[in-house]
Amino acid sequence: MCQSSRPLTSAPSVIGQSAPRADALTKVTGEERYATDYYPENHLWAGIKRAAYPHARITSIDISQAKGMVGVVAVLTSKDVQGSNRLGIFEKDQPILADGIVRHYGEAVALVTAETKEILKQALAAIVVEYEPLAAVFDPQAAMSKESVILHPGRADGNVLLSDEISCGRGVEALADCEFTAEVSIEVNWQDHAFLETEAGVAWLEADGTIAMIASTQTPFRDRLELAEALKIPPTKFRVMAPYLGGAFGGKDGITVQGFLALAALHAGGRAVKMWYEREEHFLAGTKRHPAIMKYKLGCDQQGMLQALDCSILMDTGAYSAMGGEVLELAMEHAGGPYCIPNTRIKGAVVYTNNPIASAFRGFGVPQVAAGIEQAVDELAKTAGFDLLQFRLKNAVRRGSVTPTGVLLTQTVGLSECLKKVADHRLWRERELWQNSAPAFKRRGVGLAACYHAVGFGPVIPDYANAKLELAADGHIRVFAGVSDMGQGNAATYMQIVGHILFQGYDNMEIVLPDTACTLPSCSSSASRTTFTYGNAITGAADILKERILARALLLFSFQLLEQLNVQDLVLLPGRIVHQPSGREVPLQLIAGFMDESERIATYSYTCPVNKQVLPTGKKLRHHGYPHRVFSYAVQLVRLQVDTLTGEIEVCDLLNCIEAGSVLNPQVFEQQIQGGAAQGIGYALFEDFALKEGKIRTNDFSTYILPTAMDIPNMETVVVPLAEDDGPYGMKGAGEISIDGILSAIANGVAAIIGTRITQGTLTGEKILLALRQAGKEAVR
Amino acid sequence: MRVKFMLNGKQTIVDAPADRRVVDLLREDFGLIGVKECCGAGECGACTILVNGTSRLSCLMLAAQLEGVEVTTIEGVAPEGSFAIVQQAFIDCGAVQCGFCTPGMVLAVLDLLQRNPQPSSEEIREGLSGNLCRCTGYQKIVEAVQVAAALLKGRRA
Lengths: 781, 157
Fold this sequence. Notes:
The structure holds two protein chains of two kinds.
Chain A: E1 4-5, H1 24-28, E2 44-50, E3 56-62, H2 64-67, E4 72-76, E5 86-87, E6 94-95, E7 101-102, E8 108-114, H3 117-126, E9 128-133, H4 140-143, E10 160-168, E11 180-188, E12 191-192, E13 200-205, E14 211-215, H5 220-231, E15 238-241, H6 258-266, E16 273-276, H7 279-285, E17 288-289, E18 292-300, E19 306-318, H8 324-333, E20 343-352, H9 366-384, H10 388-395, H11 415-424, H12 426-429, H13 431-435, E21 442-454, E22 464-471, E23 477-480, H14 490-502, E24 509-512, H15 530-561, E25 570-573, E26 576-579, E27 584-587, H16 588-593, H17 597-600, E28 601-607, E29 631-643, E30 649-659, H18 666-686, E31 691-692, E32 695-696, E33 715-719, H19 737-740, H20 742-754, H21 765-774
Parallel strand pairs in A: 2-16, 14-15, 19-20, 23-24, 30-33
Antiparallel strand pairs in A: 1-24, 2-8, 3-7, 3-9, 4-8, 5-6, 10-20, 11-18, 12-17, 13-14, 13-16, 18-19, 21-29, 22-23, 22-28, 25-26, 26-27, 29-30, 31-32
Helix pairs in contact in A: 5-6, 8-9, 9-20, 10-11, 14-15, 18-20
Chain B: E1 2-7, E2 10-15, H1 22-29, E3 48-51, E4 54-57, E5 70-72, H2 82-93, H3 102-115, H4 121-127, H5 139-156
Parallel strand pairs in B: 1-5
Antiparallel strand pairs in B: 1-2, 3-4, 3-5
Helix pairs in contact in B: 2-5
């Protein structure tokens, strides 16, 4: 049975109009069931025994005591995994349960199912694992040296997961000819997704042997393929259902608990199993944003035109590849920023270490490199004596420009318009007045960043969606979402699109959330492509269904009016069809009754067009996504105030000027922009992720500090709504662009206040106070 | 131990270990899944319930503490009164994204508006600072509280 829910009554929603989200009602009443909220009858609890070393050989696992405990159903190790026991997308290198070696703290070693959570805890504690500790590497630079211990022996490049170089024009030579140059070296920290709903799900064996699961996942269809190989079970023998997610942001892009759940269900004697990470376990096992070490040298001519860039990016992907290669690709492709720089060399590498696993996180490498290029741009503009905004405008990419990585921009580009809007905005125009009116013991500064963000998967991996839409027998419209809604509201947007085309209100529609048994295979909820791609597919399906409904209605009206009629005389209205010349109406339900099921269900497959450029360098990056075709753009501005006595920093104002195509639902669009920017503030100032020899020291919310309502200012969002031909109704992806520039804008604002740059990690009050002290500005009135 | 308390308006007696966490009791024994758990350590506010009308964190409470009190979860708030207005304001203002913080946030808002019917924007932010949200950046939540407060004021007048 497919799960569906019928949302609140509402007038038909129109594209371009703010409409309340269809899912808001059941969420605000507490009725909405997330993966964590399923407690199947007579279910077992499953849990994981985790590694106590960052790198070690397992010499023995003694499960005898745990197995013998009353209330313990199964104790499983890698020996119980029939397939490859390897998860991953491009590099299948991560075991479901460790088989011989553990490569990071907290790696899964054994799986237990038990009657209660208490017994589960006792059984996990009763498993005795003996290790032979191995040399470990925690520094990505050290991991690249010949002397380093190798995490995955047998790989040609040692600990280097992926490295490549993109070069354009005369490359790095051109720097010598530049009138002005600037250099910055920036290290950015890890970031935890900290979604509120930790990793969770339930699973059970169905009568025909299918492993069914309800999981908090961004990737229900891809999960089946990943599980199939790892467990040696045909992919069609998995059924994955994805209810609304309690946040994900990339952290549920791929397998989290699904491998454990499947394995546990296979050994549960037909009973259902439930798993739900505690917060500390989430920190230990979940993926993070990649930290990066970046070196930038940027040059321009006397007129301030950018001429050359030399940069290097080193990322740490931790113990397993996950999406490390793809994150490096996107970082490198965006490394030069949204500017015309004819001569470039961009070197990048992502390496394995014995640190936690880094993978997808909203922004996907772009916030990191934006912190590099945008600080370099500020430094160069200052050195060359140009206004920070005009300098960016002078060099901004336009439609038809070539980016610093050689990508020809054939689609809409709204960066110049964004920069002009910010130039005219009072927060920019009045910046000096504001800076000069700081109260005693406070200093104020304004920071700016421009950025862009690619939409979709690039030229190799098909970015597809298969939409399905049904006119149900009772006359209402059922919208099948093949792609997860992790909180961004895409499911509601699909209803909005269908409602717009078929002129139906939410009261006559329902949504069916992803379920591999009844929704159609579609790619993940990720990469600023969720609504972009599925929106195109559902538009196609709605057009087909509309045509069928009208064609069948035509027959009915012809019979009633006893004449040949024209389909153009018919219009769809909420719940009915009208023949305009006669004023006659028939309800949708009646039409549905005259249609066979095969006609009542419309499907439409859509695959995004790609950039067909053949680029001379960066060949290894191609199947990781290089080059992209469609980009969204943003200019972000922050007003900061620093306390010279304490180093405390406050973001007083924040302006997001966004070009992400046309806006389908302004309220949902603003949600994305504000939420992304808030995560950017956390990344910049609060979330000071700390590791010691691979062990996470910030593993709860009293040490890993998330911004509260008191830490985020009211933000203003200004839209530049250019219509993008590729996107449904002219839209582009807007889920990531607003996190991209915040760290760099804040870093530029802090540098404007202190006069020097804090180049390592999170910009905490302690670091700001130290920088003030070193600059002789501590406690300055 | 036997604990007698009012749960969502109903006299309730449960037999539970004295140290059973209230969040587990409510979710697992009573199926009140609107009580969310996110951190289990009193840092996030997702498991907020009302105890004698005041917001409390159910992950930090034990079953023994329920004796004689009145517990209200999101499922049990009387639909009349300010609840419906706050909920509608959350929907209309776009204050709901993933929604995992929402039930706890709504209860925290009810508590706040009871203590301070006309809070300033700063007071709203301070009043909700014990409830984390990772999706919204809080702005639309603050707007929803302002809208609800204005509507409630109009109704009282």
